[in-house]
Amino acid sequence: MTNLKSSLQLGPASTALHADRVLESGNGVAPAIHQSVTHTADGADDFARKATEPSNDSFYARHGNPTSSRIARVIADLEGAESAQMFSSGMGAITTTVLALVRSGDHVIAQKNHYSATASFLSRFLPRFGVEVSLVEQQSTTTFAAQVRPNTKIILVETPVNPSMAITDLRAISDLAVAQRITTICDNTFATPINQKPIDLGIDVVVHSVTKYIGGHHDLLAGCVASSDNLMKRVWDTSMDLGPIAAPFNSWLALRGIRTLKIRMKQHNANAIALANFLEEDPRVARVFYPGLVSHPQHELAARQMQGFGGIVTFVLDSGYEETRRFVENLELCQNAASLGGVDTLVVQPAVMFRGRLSIDEIEKQGVTPGMIRMSVGIEDIEDLIYDIDQAMNLN
Ligand SMILES: Cc1ncc(COP(=O)(O)O)c(C=O)c1O
C-alpha cells in the first residue's frame, strides 16, 4: 500500500477492498477476527493511555475492537468521513448518535416518514426525556425551515425513505442547517455510499444499518456512524455509556460483504430499474415508487444527488389487502421476509409488517396502503425475477 495512492484517492471498489489494510499487522490477505475482549498493556502509562484514548481498539472491547476498526475505516473512506464507528445494529447507531447530540430542552426536526423504529424513537422515546421533536414532509425544504427554533440541535433525514421512496434534498437541508448551526444526520442505508454521498453534499453525520446493503447477505446485524473526528468523539463517549457495540464476528462478516459492495449495487440498480419499468407497464399495478423512474415526482432531485437509484422498488397492486397477501404467497423465487439490501430478493406487504407495532392511524401516516409491496430487488437474473412476479400477479 505504501506505493499506492492514499485510500481517499482510490475509487470506491478499490477502497472497499483495501482501505483497511493499513490497520492490520501481519500479512493475512483476509482480515483476522479479534475475539479477545481485553488486551494487555505495557505498563501503567500504556494502560492509562489506552483506557482514556477515544476509540482505542486494544484496551477493552466496549471501547473498540480491531476487526470493527477495519470495517469502520472502509465505511469512513467510502463516505468521505474522517472517522467511523461500528454498532450492534442500525438502531444502535441512530439512537446513540441522536442521544450524543441532544439534551433535555433541545429540539429535533425529522421527517414524517422514517424507518418504523426510527419513527418510534423520535415520537415516543425522545419526548420522555424532554426533547421536542417536529416531524415534517421531507419533499419540501421549506417545511424544515419553518420548524427551526433557537433550540433546534439536529435535523435527521432518511433518503430514499423506507418504504415510500420519497427523497430529501440533502444540499438544501445542509445549507439551511449550516446557516442555523444545526447538526445534520442522514440515514444512508437505502442508497449506500456507492449511490449517494451525503457528506459531499454538506451533511455532517451519516448513519447506516450495515445489516442491509453493506453486509449484503442477510447474515449479520450491525450499524455504523461516520462523521468528523470531533463529532465521532461525542458519539463514542455516549456509546461508552450505552454500550451498543458491534460484535467482532459481525464486523468481520460486514468486511467480507463490503468488499463486493460496488458490483452488488450495480446489479441491484440495474435489476430494480428493469423491474420498475416492467411493473409500471402492467395494468395489474396501480402505482410504482422508484426514484429512477421519470414518473417519480422527485426524479430530477434524485438524479441530481444520487449516482444510482438503489435496489428498493415499492409498488401498489390494483388489489385489496387479501389479494395482495395472495400475491406474496404465490411468489416462488422472491421470498417473504423482513429486511432488505441482500443478494436475495425479499418482499414484504408493509401493511402486514406494520400491523404488529403501529396503530392503523400511524400506518396511514407512514403512507402505507393495503395493496403496497416493498421489494428489495436482489441480484438474481432479471428474467427470472420478472417471470416470478408476473406469475404471482395472476390472482384469479
Ligand atoms: C433505513 C433503515 N434505517 C435503519 C434501520 C435499522 O437497522 P437495524 O435493523 O440494523 O437496527 C433499518 C432497518 O430496516 C432501515 O431500513
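^ pyridoxal-5'-phosphate complex. Residues 7-258 form a domain with the Aspartate Aminotransferase; domain 2 fold (CATH 3.40.640.10). The mean pLDDT is 95.
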